[in-house]
User: Fold this.
Amino acid sequence: MGLKSGLRTVAAYWPIAAVAATCVAVMLFAASGDDLSVTEREISIVARQWGFTPHRIFVNTGDTVDLSLVSVDVVHGFYLEGHRVEAEIRPGKLGFMVRDPSAGEDFREVESIRFVAGLPGKYRYRCSVTCGTLHPFMQGEMIVRPNLPYRAGIVGTIGVTLAAFSMMLVPSKRNGQEGVSNRETKWRLDLLAGSGWLGWLVRKRWFQFAVVVPNVLVLFFFLVSGFVGSPIGNRNIIITVVWILWWFLLITIFVPLGGRVWCMMCPLPFFGEWFARRRLIGVRPEAEKSRSLKTGSINRTWPRKLSGMWVQNLLFLAMCSVSTILVTRPALTAAVLGGMLLAAVVVHAVFRRRSFCRYLCPLNAWMGLYSMTAISEIRTRDSSVCEDCTDHSCVLGSDAAWGCPWMVNPSKLDRNNHCGLCMECIKACPNDNLTIRARPPCSDVQIHRYDEAWMAFIMITLVIAYSITLLGPWATVKDWANVSEVGNWGGFAIHTAVVWFASLVFVPGLWYAAARLGRRLGRGAPEVRVSDLFVRFSYVLVPLGLAAWAAFSFPLIMVNFSHVTSSLSDPLGWGWDLFGTADHTWRPLLPEWIPHLQIPLLLLGLGAALWRGAAIASSLFPSRRGALGSLLPHGVLCSVITIILLRLYVG
Amino acid sequence: MWGDAMVKERLAATAVIVPMLVVAALVYRYAPATTPESEHPGTRVFNLTGVAADGVWTLGDVNGLNYWWKHFEPATLHVTEGDWVEINLRSADLVHCFYIPAFSVGPIDIEPGHSRRVSFRASTAGVYQYYCTSMCGHCHFYMRGWVVVTPEGEEPVMPPAIGCPLCIPDYGPPPETDRLVELGAYFYQQKGCITCHGPEGRGGIENPNSTNATVPDHFTTAQKLFLASPEDADAFIELVQHEPDLAEVDEPPEIERLPIVMTRFANAEEIIRTGRYSAKLEPGGPEPPLQMPAWKYLVEEREIDALLVYFVSLYGWEEG
Amino acid sequence: MRADGPKNDLDVVVVLDRVGGADPPPATTKASMDQRGLVFIPHVLGVQRGTTVTFLNNDNDEHNVYFLDDQTGDTLDIGTWGQGVSVDHTFEKAGTIITLCKLHLEMAAYIVVVESPWFVQIALDASSRQGEFAIENVPPGEYELSVWHKKLKQKGGPAIVSVGRGESIEVNPIITKSKYAKAVN
Assistant:
C-alpha cells in the first residue's frame, strides 16, 4: 500500500470524514438557547392515579431543587432516577415521607426535599408504591439541561444517515459486483456439520417435546395464577413474566439469535397439535390423510382469502388497542392466552398442520417479520441435491418425520419468515441436506407483498404508540387507553382511531410519497416501478423496528425486574415466599443508564436499516447514484422515525 | 400398537398431565382460602382483603377474576370473649391501613400483594370498630366494620354493616345548582365528612382515646363563627355565595361583628385545608383512629366555602 | 368525657366603677388561664386592666390563643404553642376580650378587663339562677354597678350606688335577655 493508494482510499472516503467533522461541530457549538445558569428552584409535583403534574420539568445541571410532593387520591410513591430520592406520599397529609433508597435508610417525614440536579440528561420519576392498575406506567420526566445525550443522539442519527448515504457513493471493492441477491455468497456457518451435540439433539424425536412441555406447564400455571391469583399486575406471575421477562427475551434474544425459535417451544398449539396428530413424539403419517375428527383433524386448507397477513395485522392492531388494559390485568392476560390456546385446539381440529400459527396467531405477524434479522437460519446445504430428490419428505413427511408443519417448502426456503424451527425437515430429509446455519444479521431482505409491507408499517407505528402511551408521561393518554376503568370512551375512540389511522394509512402514505420520490431520484432502471420501491424498501423498517422494540423493552425489564424476582417467590400474590424474594422492595436496575442503552440501539438499528436499504437499492438500480437517489427519501424517513423515538426516550 | 413408540407416547402424556395435576393440587392446597388453621388450637383465623373499589375489608376471596365484577361485602368478625384471634391481611389493589384501636391492633400498612398477619386476644366483650386509616379512594371513609366479641353462651349482637353509599347507581352527580348550601350538603356526604362528623353535622361519632371523645360536630358552626342571629347567618351565606373572595368585599352587608365572623370563617377554612391532629387522651393508649386529613389538595376552595355555609345553615337557632 | 361545665352561662362579673374622680391605678396582679381537655379553664376570667395573664397549655395537643376585642373587632394572635409552654399577656385596655383558639373552633373563653379593682366574679346557681356576691373594702363614693354576663344584659343598665364609710349596701341587680334590659329612665 503506497502513499498514492493510501491517499486514494482517503479521498474515496472523504464524504464520511466530512460528515464526522460536521457532526462534531454541531454537537460542540449548538446553542440551545436556554439559560443554563445554576439556580435554585422550587418545584411542586402532584401525584394522582396515574400520572404526575407537572409531567415534565426542566432544571439546569447543578441546580438545587426544593421539591414538595402531594397526592390527591391514594398513597403514591416517587422515585427519581439517578438522584437518590424516594418518597411515599399520602393524601390528606401536607408533608411526605422521603429517604435515600441506596442508603438503606428509613423514611422520614419532611415538608420538602432538596437535591442537586445531576449530570445532563433525562431522568424519569416514577411511582414506587403500587397504587392501582396503571401504577407501573405512572411516570414523569425531569430534563437536566443541557440534554447532551439527546443532542448526541440527534447528531448521531444525522451522522449515521449521512455516513450511510456517503458510503453508497464509494465504489465497492468487489470489482463491480454491486448489488445483493438472496443467494449472495456471504458468510454462513453450518452448525450441524460433523457429529456435534447440536445435530444429535435436534435429530431426536423427543427434542421438540422436551422444549415445549416445560412451557406448557408454565402456561398452565400462569393461567391458574391469572384467574385465581391476585388481581394486582406486579404481584402476579402471569403479568411479570409474560409482559416483562418473556417479552424482553423475545425481542432481544430469541428473535435476533434464533429467528422464530420461540415457535419451536410455544405451548399454545401444543394441545391442538397433539389431538390432531395423536402423537406427542412419534410420527403418524395417517394423521395427514385424516378427514375427520375421529382420526385426527379434518385437515382442511385454510381459505385463500384469509391466507395473507391481513388477519394477523388486524388482530395485532386490535390486541394493541387494548394492550394497556391487557398487560395490567392478570385475568385478562390469562383469558387471552387461554383463548388462543382454545382457538389453536379448534383450528388444529379443522385445518391442516399449523394453520393457527400461520394465519391466526397475532404473534406470527411480529415474529415473521423480525425473524428476517436473525443470525441463524434453516436452509438446504446444496440446492442441486434437492433438484434430484423424488421423496420430497420435507414437504410430505415420512415415517421418520412430519412434513413441514409450517407449510413451507424447506428445499426452497429462502427466508426465515415462516420457519418455526421445529426441526422436522432436518429429521425428514433422506439426504441430510437441511441444516441450521449461522449467518450475518439482517441477511433476509425480501419483502414482496403488500400485507408484509403493511406489517412493517404497523409494527413501527405501534412501537411509537406504545412508547407514547405506556412509557410516556402523559396521564391523559393512559386514561384514554384504560377505558374499562376510567370510562372515557371518547378518548379511547380517539386513541384507537389515531393508532389505526397512523399505522394503516398515514405511515404507509408517507412511505408511498417516499417511494414516488425515490422513483424520481433513482436513475437508470426504468422498469422499476413505484410499487417495487414501496414494497422492497419497507424492509428497512425491520431492523429499525427491532431496534426500536428492543429500546422499548429495556426500560420495562430494567425498571420492573424486581417484580419478576419477587413474583417467582410469590407467583399468585398470596403471600407465599418460595425463594425468599417475595418481600423485596421495588428497586429499578440502573434506570439512569437506560437512555445510554437506547441511543446506541436506535443508532444501530438505523445503521442496519440504511445498510440493508443500500443493498436493496443496489439490487434495483445499477448505478451508485441511482441507488442512492432511490434510497434517499426512505432513509430520511427512517432518520425522522429515529429522531421521534429519541425524543420520546431521551429527549 | 403396543410397541416401543406407544410406551414413549404414554410416558410423554404422563409427563404432561401429571405435573399439571400436581401444580393444580399445590395451588389449591396453599390457597389462602384453604390454608390450614393456625398452630395455636382455638385461635380464630380470619382472612381479610382490602378492596378500594368497594371500600371494604372483606372476608371473601378476591382474585384476578372476581375483583372486576363482584361487589364485596364488609366483614363483621364474630368471636367469643377470650378467643385468640389472628387476621391475615391482604390488599387487592393499593395501600390500605388496618386498625382496631380497641385491641391496639395496628395501625398497620397493607401493601398490595403483601400479606401481613396480626393477632390479639378478644379479652373484653363488646362491639368494636375496625378502620382503614390511609386514604384509599372515594370509599375510604366508609371502609369500616365491626368486631363483635360475645360472652360465652350469649347471642351475638348483629350491628348493621357499614357500606359505602357512593358507588351505587342511585348516588347521583352533584346537584345542578350553584347554591353553595346545596352543594355543601352534597359534598358533605360525597367526600366522606359525614362518616366522622355525623349526619347533618350532629357529631357524636366515637373516636377512641381522643381528647375529643367524639368527633366535633358542625351544626354549631354558626355559633362558633359568632353569627348572632338567623338573619345574620342568611346574610353571611349570601355574602359567601356571591363574593368568592371575601377579602375583596366593597360594601359589607349588615352583619353584626362581621370582621370577627370573617376571621373565624378564615380559621375554619384553614382547619379544613391543613387538617388537625387529635391527640391521645391517655398517652399510653392507642392512637385515635379518626384524624382530620389536610384537604388542601383534595378539594377546591369553593368546595370548602360550600361546606362551611352548609354547616352554618344547620344551626338550630331556637335552641340558642 | 367533657362536661358542659366550662361552657356554661352561669359566670357573671360584678364591677363597681367610680363615677367621676380619678381613675383607679392599674393592677399589678397576675392571673392565669389554662387549656386542658380542649377547653379554656376558666371559661370566664375577670381581671383588672394592667393584669398580666399567663396562658398555659396542659393539653396533649398544640393550642393557639388569639383575642377578639368585642368592642372594636380587632384581633391579636399571641401564638401557638405545645404542651407545657406558657405565654404571658398584659391587658392594657378595659373591655371584653373573647379568647379563642384558631385550631379548635369549639374553644372560647371570655376575659373581662375592668377598670377598677373592685369587682368580683361569681357563678350563679344552675337551678335557681341566682347568686350572691360581695365586694369588700370599697372606698366611699359614688359608683356604677354593672354586671357582666356573656349573653344577658343588666336590666335597667348600670345602677348608681353610693357607698358611705363603713357601710354595707345591698344591691339586687337583675340580668336578663337584652330586649328586656332597656334602661329605665
Summary: Residues 174-183 of chain A have pLDDT under 50 and may be disordered. Chains A and C do not touch (no CB pair under 8 Å). The CA atoms of residues 551 and 598 of chain A lie 5 Å apart. The two ends of chain A are 45 Å apart (CA to CA).
